Amino acid sequence: MSSFSKNIWRSIKGHISRFLALFAIVALGAGVFAGLRMFVPDMIHSADTIYDEDRLIDFRIVSTLGIVEEDVEAVLETDGVEGAKPIILNEIALANPEKSLQISLEGIDMEQVRDFEAALAKASSETEQTRIKEEQFPNYVNRLTLLDGRFPQNPGEIVISNTDNNVQVGDNFSVTQVVGQDSIDKYLKVKKFEIVGIIKSPEFILDDYGVSPDTGKTITNYAYTGFNTYKETD
Question: The pTM is what?
Answer without folding.
Answer: 0.79
